[in-house]
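URGENT: need a sanity check before tomorrow's submission.

F., can you look over the Cupin domain protein record below? I want to be sure the sequence and structure line up before it goes out.
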Amino acid sequence: MPFNQERFINHKSELYRGVDHRPMMGGFTRHQPDSHIYVNRRNTMKSSLDSSNSSLQPKSPAELLKKLTYATPETAPFVPGRRAFFKYRELGLTDATEGQVRAQVTMATGVMQQTGWHYHICDVHFIYTLRGWIDLQFEDGRTIRVGAGESLFIPPGLKHNETAISEDLELFEMSVPAKMETVPCNPPEGIGKFA
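Structure tokens as predicted:
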């Protein structure tokens, strides 16, 4: 093996688990897939997802062109989503980034049902309202209406409840990673279930 070549650690090894101990927003620890952990010649762990060795940095123009993603209303498919009263248009980033980023347009389809209190397990959850508005209540009791031209970043683990939307709501939504987990939870102390 050449001197500078890294060797892959067996993905079943209990000694080298895929944990990145750098703190993230919300106090979570990032767990990386075992298949992305390597040990270099000095026996120090390194993640293939680090920016210095990222799978998002292809090495040739041909690889870059494979990741080029262009979406139009005609080519971006509707996909199943978290809520029945929304429809979701996938913009292609999930495939282009191998599941590291999701970008979609979320549109109202009818009468909203409150989501109930929940939080998300992710690194990033960002929305930008294109048309209409959405009301979200947060665990400190505050309600924020995010209208057209406004954005909102919801930190991981922050409890919230979507309480109302306009009939014409359309928003851009992005999450990192693409698969964002939604965890139902009890309402915060002093706030009603569907307040």
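My own read: Helices lie at 61-67, 93-96. The chain has two domains: 7-54, 67-184. If you see anything odd, call me.
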